[in-house]
UniProtKB/TrEMBL annotation:
<dbReference type="GO" id="GO:0005886">
    <property type="term" value="C:plasma membrane"/>
</dbReference>
<keyword id="KW-0969">Cilium</keyword>
<comment type="similarity">
    <text>Belongs to the FliM family.</text>
</comment>
<feature type="region of interest" description="Disordered">
    <location>
        <begin position="1"/>
        <end position="21"/>
    </location>
</feature>
<dbReference type="GO" id="GO:0009425">
    <property type="term" value="C:bacterial-type flagellum basal body"/>
</dbReference>
<dbReference type="Pfam" id="PF02154">
    <property type="entry name" value="FliM"/>
</dbReference>
<keyword id="KW-0283">Flagellar rotation</keyword>
<keyword id="KW-0282">Flagellum</keyword>
<keyword id="KW-0145">Chemotaxis</keyword>
<keyword id="KW-0966">Cell projection</keyword>
<dbReference type="GO" id="GO:0003774">
    <property type="term" value="F:cytoskeletal motor activity"/>
</dbReference>
<dbReference type="InterPro" id="IPR001689">
    <property type="entry name" value="Flag_FliM"/>
</dbReference>
<feature type="domain" description="Flagellar motor switch protein FliN-like C-terminal">
    <location>
        <begin position="238"/>
        <end position="306"/>
    </location>
</feature>
<dbReference type="Pfam" id="PF01052">
    <property type="entry name" value="FliMN_C"/>
</dbReference>
<dbReference type="GO" id="GO:0071978">
    <property type="term" value="P:bacterial-type flagellum-dependent swarming motility"/>
</dbReference>
<keyword id="KW-0472">Membrane</keyword>
<keyword id="KW-0975">Bacterial flagellum</keyword>
C-alpha cells in the first residue's frame, strides 16, 4: 500500500492519511534517480528538436519538457484529443511501437513555413494531411528525431523509425491496454504558436534499461549505501505485510436460474474428487496444492506441492 499524507500545516492536514493500493506486478512510479536521468535525456532531445525546427522552418522554435510519467496505454490514449496526429514509430532495437503525438494544426503551420508562408497554417477541424504534406512533415520529423540515439546514449541505444500517421487515438493499438508506457509531455513553440506534444515509449523497455544503466551512472559510495539500506528496509517491510491465503475446491458450473432459486437447505454437489488436493490461492493466484486435514479441534491443510512459476 502507498500512504499519501498531507503536508504539515496544510488545510485538512489533521485528516487520516489516504491509502491507495499499489500493484507490485504493474508499478507505475518512477524511481527518483531514474526520473532525473530521463529528464536529462528528454531535455537533450528537446533542445536538438527545437534547433532542427528553427533551422528548417526559418522560424524561432523551441521544445520544452514539461513532465514525464508512467501510465497504462489505455490511460494514455484516454487523455488524447480526437482527432490528433499520431506518428507511429518503430522503436529500435526492440521493434516495439512508439508514438509521437501532436495537433494536426501544428503540422500545418510547419508546412506553411516550409512553403515560404507566414505560419498561418490551417485550423479547420477534422483536417488531415495530404500525401505531399505528409511527405514534408515526415522528412522534418526524421531529421528532428535523428538525435534520439545521442540524447539517450547514457541510458540505452534508442532510435525511432517513422512508419505511418493515424488520426483517431481510439483506433491505434500500439500496445496492450494494460501495458506500462513512458509518456513525456512537451510544450512546443513555433513562431507565435504554442502546442502540446507527447512522446510515448514502451515503459518496460525503458525501465529495464535504466536499471541496467544504474551500474554505469556514476554514484557516490554514500548514495550506494543509502540505496542498499533502503532496499533492505523495503524487503523487511514487504515480508511483514499480512496476506490473505485461501483454500478452494474446483469450481462448478450452474445455470443462472439455479443461482436465483437458491434457498436455505439446498445442496450443491461439488465435482472435486475426494482424492485430489485443493488449491492454495493468494489474490486468486494458485501458489500450491494442499490435502485436507485437521490440527487439533480445527480444520487444516497440508501443502503437498508448490507452483513455482506463480511464486515470483
Amino acid at each position: 500500500m502507498t500512504v499519501l499524507d498531507t503536508a504539515p500545516g496544510a488545510p485538512g492536514s489533521t485528516r487520516e492519511p489516504q491509502v491507495e493500493p499499489y500493484d507490485f506486478r504493474r508499478p507505475l512510479t518512477l524511481v527518483r534517480e531514474h526520473a532525473r536521468h530521463l529528464e536529462m535525456a528528454f531535455g537533450r532531445l528537446a533542445r536538438q528538436f527545437g534547433t532542427q525546427l528553427t533551422a528548417r522552418l526559418r522560424a524561432v522554435s523551441a521544445l520544452e519538457l514539461e513532465h514525464i510519467a508512467l501510465h497504462t496505454y489505455e490511460e494514455y490514449i484516454a487523455g488524447l484529443p480526437t482527432p490528433t496526429a499520431m506518428v507511429l514509430c518503430s522503436v529500435q532495437p526492440t521493434g516495439q511501437t512508439g508514438v509521437l503525438q501532436l495537433p494536426v494544426a501544428a503540422t500545418m503551420v510547419w508546412v506553411d513555413y516550409l512553403f515560404g508562408g507566414d505560419g498561418r497554417g490551417d485550423d479547420r477541424p477534422g483536417r488531415e494531411l495530404t500525401d505531399i504534406e505528409l511527405t514534408l512533415v515526415r522528412e522534418l520529423l526524421e531529421h528532428a528525431l535523428a538525435d534520439m540515439e545521442y540524447a539517450f546514449a547514457g541510458i540505452t541505444r534508442l532510435s525511432l523509425d517513422i512508419r505511418s500517421v493515424q488520426y483517431n487515438p481510439q483506433f491505434v493499438q500500439a500496445a496492450a491496454a494494460t501495458d506500462a508506457v513512458l509518456v513525456a509531455t512537451f510544450r512546443l513553440r513555433v513562431g507565435e504558436r504554442e502546442d502540446t506534444l507527447t512522446l510515448m515509449l514502451p515503459g518496460e523497455h525503458m525501465v529495464s534499461a535504466l536499471q541496467v544503466a544504474d551500474g554505469v551512472v556514476a554514484t557516490s559510495p554514500e548514495d550506494r549505501r543509502k540505496a542498499m539500506a533502503a532496499q533492505e528496509d523495503l524487503t523487511h517491510a514487504v515480508a511483514a505485510v499480512p496476506v490473505e491465503v485461501g483454500v478452494r475446491f474446483a469450481p462448478i458450473t450452474v445455470q443462472p436460474r439455479d443461482v436465483l432459486a437458491l434457498a436455505v437447505g439446498d445442496v450443491l454437489p461439488l465435482t472435486h474428487p475426494s482424492t485430489e488436493p485443493l488449491d492454495v490461492v493468494v489474490d486468486d493466484v494458485v501458489l500450491a496444492k494442499a490435502a485436507i486435514g485437521s490440527h487439533g479441534p480445527r480444520l487444516a491443510c497440508r501443502v503437498v506441492a508448490v507452483t513455482e512459476e506463480n511464486r515470483a
